[in-house]
Amino acid sequence: MKLWGGRFKKSESKLMEDFNSSLSFDRQLYREDIEGSMVHVKMLAKCNILSSEESKAILSGLESILKDIEEGKLEVEGDYEDIHSFVEINLIERIGQVAKKLHTARSRNDQVALDFRLYAKRKALEVVENIEYLQDIIENLGDKNNVIMPGYTHLQRAQVVTFKHHIMAYYHMFKRDRERILNAICIMDESPLGCCALAGTTYDIDRNFTARELGFKKPVDNFLDGVSDRDYVIELISDFSIIMMHLSRLSEELILWSSKEFNFIQIDDEFSTGSSIMPQKKNPDAAELIRGKTGRVYGSLVSLLTTMKGIPLAYNKDMQEDKEQLFNSLDTVLSCLKIMSGMLSTLKVNEKNTFNAVKRGFLNATEAADYLVNKGMAFRDAHKVIGEIVLYCEDKNRAIEDLSLDELKKFSSLFEEDVYDFIDYKNTINRGIKRNLK
Ligand code: ARG
């Protein structure tokens, strides 16, 4: 069933019909499509392009379609080209000839541009809510686990930090992600309705009215741009890609930390799986899946950038390919944010093991060098002295603080009794708090 055909002698091949149809995925836009049509009709009546009886009939028809879909009485499926055709043909079947006036002063080009912007805005806000929820969980986890652990560079133990400081790094990463999405919403917040096919319309319509009623800041400034702009989709998917990159880095740490080699954390049974052959195993599948699914979202970004890169203004059917990329990446990012929140809210930190890793890792070596600097030695010389001490300790399987003052003095006469306090892990953390390690 189509909304066109007058100029054709032959009917479309079934192969082409299936190839062209987008209903199987753009059915997700039904709410935005009907909402957009209702505001369009109100505007047509306000501008005396439709009579008030006509507009009332169309509005109640659209309302009944929306209600039936929401209540499961009308399935969005069948032999239709897209969601726009589905709604319009259903409307004609319900209220008759007057329904054919709905598409006055409108094209499917500005219609789809509108539906997709409305949808993108709504779902982007859902992502923001999920980020905020995850940030709360992270803050809580940090507050509960203000315990000493090694900080790493090159995945080698480097300096003492706290679990809280480490996990709060992700809080700040997600804070930027949230701001990026809110900024993208702000940029996309213009209504394309009224651009029509590509050049506006000869009817005296009111684009400010429709923009306002649909919750946009204003109508777009340029008709050609309005119908062919998909920057906002690309921008959102690139924001989602960055979120996934952050989730994936966090997942990687959870996977490492939950291994027996680290044993810093326990991922709850609720978010772990077992092995069908090795009875002892508990696998961090949730984290691995997040890490794995990151590739899908990157794929959507590259796919849509490639789709858009060579098409002339204005609308081209290539752009129908935008839908699945946004739908898929939204599904992925939303489910990954939820799973990460679940995993972190049930996570246990093994305080003893994080502390032992600090002790075995010479994580006060930099502080020991700083101690000598405070006593007057040049840092480069202090670095060398402590390096020699570490070598000595490694050989004897001891930590710097386990050496006696006599032993330390063999490396430098500047060592005094106060060194032990200075290189004590808790004291180094307390000094760290002063330098904002919270
Ligand atoms: N299904 C189409 C899309 O998603 C709707 C717009 C169709 N416009 C047209 N001129 N054929 O892009």
From TrEMBL:
It comes from the Bacteria. It catalyses: 2-(N(omega)-L-arginino)succinate = fumarate + L-arginine. Transmembrane segments: none annotated. Keywords: Amino-acid biosynthesis, Arginine biosynthesis, Cytoplasm, Lyase. GO terms for molecular function: argininosuccinate lyase activity. Pfam families: ASL_C2, Lyase_1. Its main location: cytoplasm. Residues 6-299 form the Fumarate lyase N-terminal domain. InterPro entries: Arg_succ_lyase_C, Argininosuccinate_lyase, Fumarase/histidase_N, Fumarate_lyase_CS, Fumarate_lyase_fam, Fumarate_lyase_N, L-Aspartase-like. It is found in: Cytoplasm. PANTHER family: ARGININOSUCCINATE LYASE. This is Argininosuccinate lyase. It comes from Clostridium kluyveri. The lineage of its organism: Bacteria, Bacillati, Bacillota, Clostridia, Eubacteriales. The gene is argH.
